[in-house]
Design brief:
The complex is a heterodimer. By secondary structure, chain A is an alpha+beta fold. Chain A is built from 3 helices and 5 strands, in the order E-H-E-H-E-E-E-H. In chain A, 37% of the residues are buried. In chain B, strand 19, helix 17 and strand 20 form a beta-alpha-beta unit. The chains are: A alpha+beta, B alpha/beta. Strand 3 (56-57) of chain A pairs antiparallel with strand 4 of chain B.
């Protein structure tokens, strides 16, 4: 099954770049099938952030497969990312 | 209660990241009420044991930065996350401000020297990788000190801000402009094609900087001198490129300001030689490296010894015999000219007192005085001291002034010349015809002798116009009651013509090159003087 995820960041800072790298590394290592990862800059799309009530960035929302799940932080703890997004290796 | 009123923001999330509890500080920090927050999905925290930084998006639309820690809690059978977080927005902002201040000039808000060096280093790394060119421009405002001195520092600051704006607006956004300090700016141009393209940019900058302006009601005509160094030809590292652009800027200043100038290796070698020479001259002054030689002056038409011109010479261990054209300007710049100049008078006084008893005594010995010495306030004082100590007889000493001595404030010069004449010194105008050559100076100042430059004498036998010119100078000198001396006489033919025209004195290799003090005293008045009379070593 394909994973569909959206990563919300606030500007292309060192912090957000590190989060993107960590996340992609985990996704590449752990997901057997393809994944789609959208990246949304909340500074450019504040409406989307408001609609989704993004309280902190970086935040990742996994939309597919359901249920929708969220993780926050720098994604440096692989186990917690896998747990929070319910990704199966 | 403890949880509710803790000063730290605290949240409890369930294992799906939904907010279960929120304390007062957290609600305030996020700018949402606790009721609005409870039940919202924040997300499962994924940072490790170390505190993590993330952005918080407050209810009022503002963004901040928080430092977040997570702790896993087992409550009954459930896994919960306790999140504590501190607002570090202000601290981050302060760090950013400090970093900005460390890298920017406060007056103009341009990058400062430190940032310039860092970014030039990065630009050089890029240029090396891409095998592209890069130019460093060093820009110095001309006569900026005058603005500060006459209109005050506040006006000077306004001008600096104006100029920094003009520089920034004249360049591409990718170009770097920095204030290096004082009235100095530097520019880095990346991806520039060739030197010609750099010169075009430099000229544009110079033109834009030079637009007249008004500050505090005063018209100001700014100008700048720009030095250019080019990567990789003129240097491959930050320090070399900055230094060479700076060197080129100084070369531009010396060539008359308000221009742009590319770095030249020959000029730098010249500068380096001057620097080493300057050091060596100071040492030579301590170690006795200076000496005085004497070139005889003869009377015409009998061609007998009359006196001598004292000439300062210098021999340096590293450089050998150095030409006075090279070392005199350096002595003038470093101020040693006053001490060395006084020492020459002492040497002459010593020669004259030793020579005083001889039958063939020198009537008068002439000493060259530079413009710096003449206007330096110390000349009269030191001469008076020598006269008081009975070491120097002014009636046996002449002072030679070059035209640069009279080109400045004529009233001031006249006053000093008069004071010298009153003491008994004779005054000569040296090298007449080479410099500013205003005939009126001869008239306005109380000269006794005019020395016609050797370039006229050497053309004498070659063209009739040259001879006419020399005759005119001679006639004019005599009309003003001056004695006229011909410099640089080298041939019998020349001396024949000079005698025919009625010159009073002559000097040149035909009679003698400059010789040491012991040798000048061997010269005789008994016969016409010729170079063969001296066998000892000569100094040209």
């Amino acid at each position: 099954m394909n994973y569909v995820l959206t990563l919300y960041i606030a500007g292309y800072t060192t912090r957000s770049q590190r989060a993107v790298e960590n996340l992609k590394q985990i996704l590449n290592d752990q997901t057997a099938t393809d994944y789609e990862l959208d990246i949304i800059d909340v500074l450019e799309r504040p409406d989307v952030a408001e609609e989704k009530k993004i309280l902190t960035t970086p935040t990742v929302i996994k939309k597919q497969p359901p249920p929708e799940q969220r993780v926050i932080g720098d994604f440096s703890d692989r186990e917690k990312v896998l747990f929070g997004l319910n990704l199966q290796s | 209660m403890l949880f509710e009123h803790a000063p730290t923001g605290m949240l409890v999330l369930d294992d799906q990241g939904a907010i279960q509890f929120v304390n007062h500080a957290a609600a305030e920090l996020l700018n949402w009420s606790a009721q609005q927050l409870i039940g919202e999905q924040l997300g499962v925290p994924t940072s490790g044991d170390q505190p993590a930084e993330l952005e918080i998006h407050r209810g009022n639309g503002e963004m901040g930065i928080a430092e977040l820690r997570t702790k896993n809690i087992q409550w009954k059978t459930k896994l919960l996350f306790l999140i504590t977080f501190h607002d570090v927005t202000e601290r981050k902002k302060a760090i950013r401000t400090i970093r900005h201040q460390a890298l920017h000039d406060r007056l103009t808000n341009l990058p400062n020297r430190l940032q310039m060096q860092e970014r030039l280093k990065e630009a050089l790394d890029r240029a090396s990788l891409e095998v592209s060119h890069l130019a460093v421009l060093f820009i110095d405002l001309d006569k900026f000190k005058d603005v500060n001195d006459t209109l005050g520092h506040a006006a000077g600051d306004k001008l600096l801000r104006l100029i920094s704006g003009r520089l920034s607006n004249s360049l591409r956004s990718s170009d770097l402009v920095a204030r290096m300090g004082g009235d100095e700016f530097a520019v880095v141009l990346e991806g520039i094609k060739d030197r010609q393209a750099v010169s075009a940019v430099a000229e544009k900058l110079r033109k834009n900087v030079s637009e007249p302006t008004t500050i505090d009601g005063e018209s100001i005509f700014p100008a700048c001198t720009i030095g250019i160094s080019f990567f990789p030809d003129d240097g491959e590292d930050v320090q070399t490129l900055l230094m060479r652009a700076d060197t080129a800027m100084y070369q531009g200043k010396e060539s008359g300001r308000n221009r742009s100038q590319s770095f030249s290796i020959a000029e730098e070698e010249d500068k380096s030689r001057r620097f080493r020479l300057d050091q060596a001259l100071s040492n030579a002054w301590q170690d006795g490296g200076f000496f005085v030689v004497y070139q005889p002056l003869i009377t015409l038409p009998d061609q007998r010894l009359y006196g001598a011109e004292a000439l300062l010479r210098c021999r340096l261990p590293e450089f050998g015999l150095v030409s006075p054209e090279e070392f005199i300007p350096l002595l003038e710049d470093n101020g040693l000219i006053h001490e060395v100049g006084e020492w020459v008078f002492r040497e002459v006084a010593q020669l004259l007192s030793a020579n005083g008893q001889q039958a063939n005594m020198l009537d008068r010995v002439w000493v060259n005085v530079s413009a710096k010495q003449l206007f330096g306030d110390k000349l009269i004082e030191s001469l008076d001291r020598l006269i008081d100590e009975s070491r120097l007889d002014p009636h046996r000493v002449g002072i030679e002034l070059t035209e640069s001595c009279v080109a400045g404030d004529i009233d001031h010069t006249r006053k000093i010349v008069r004071e010298l004449s009153e003491r008994g010194f004779l005054i000569a105008m040296d090298d007449f015809g080479t410099g500013f050559s205003s005939l009126s100076y001869l008239h306005q100042l109380d000269f006794d002798v005019v020395k016609v430059d050797k370039s006229f004498v050497q053309r004498l036998s070659k063209s009739s116009e040259a001879r006419q010119l020399v005759r005119a100078i001679l006639a004019m000198g005599h009309t003003l009651n001056l004695s006229v001396l011909a410099e640089g006489v080298e041939t019998e033919e020349q001396i024949g013509l000079l005698i025919e025209d009625g010159f009073d004195f002559a000097q040149g290799y035909l009679f003698s090159r400059p010789v040491p003090s012991d040798d000048i005293q061997l010269a005789t008045k008994d016969a016409p003087l010729r170079a063969e009379c001296f066998n000892a070593s000569c100094y040209s």
